[in-house]
Design brief:
Strand order of the largest sheet: 1-2-3-4
Radius of gyration: 16 Å
Distance between the termini: 31 Å
Strand content: 35-45%
Number of strands: 4
Helix content: 10-25%
Number of helices: 1
Order of helices and strands: EEEHE
Largest sheet: 4 strands, mixed
Structural class: mainly beta
Length: 104
C-alpha cells in the first residue's frame, strides 16, 4: 500500500450475449514530497471479447473522463500507466463498437 490509505480494486460482473463476463480494475497511486512527482499505475482486465479498435476507442474516451482528471497531491507525473487487457475467454461475440451496454 505504501502511501495509499485504501486499496483501489473494483470488480464488475455482467452479461454479454447472455454469457457472464467480469471486468477487474486495480490502481496504485503514489505522491512524493520531493521533487513534487507522482505516479499512477492502473490495470483493467476483462474476459470479454472486444475488438482492439473498439477497446482503444473506449479507453481513450474514458481516460479523458477519469484518469486525465486525477491529481495526486497536486504533483506532476512523468510516467502514469494504464494497461487494459481483454482476453475473450467469456466466449461472447466480439464487441466491435465502443458503444455497448452490459446488463447486470
Amino acid at each position: 500500500m505504501t502511501t495509499d490509505t485504501v486499496p483501489k480494486v473494483h470488480v464488475v460482473r455482467g452479461r454479454l450475449d447472455d454469457r457472464p463476463i467480469t471486468v477487474l480494475g486495480i490502481a496504485k497511486g503514489a505522491g512524493m514530497i520531493s521533487p513534487d512527482m507522482a505516479t499512477l499505475l492502473a490495470f483493467v482486465a476483462t474476459d470479454a471479447a472486444i475488438a482492439s479498435s473498439a477497446l482503444q476507442a473506449m479507453v481513450r474516451e474514458e481516460t479523458e473522463r477519469s484518469f486525465n482528471r486525477i491529481t495526486v497531491d497536486g504533483d506532476t507525473s512523468t510516467n502514469d500507466t494504464l494497461f487494459v487487457l481483454a482476453n475473450g475467454r467469456a466466449g461472447n461475440r466480439p464487441v466491435d463498437t465502443p458503444e455497448f451496454t452490459c446488463g447486470r
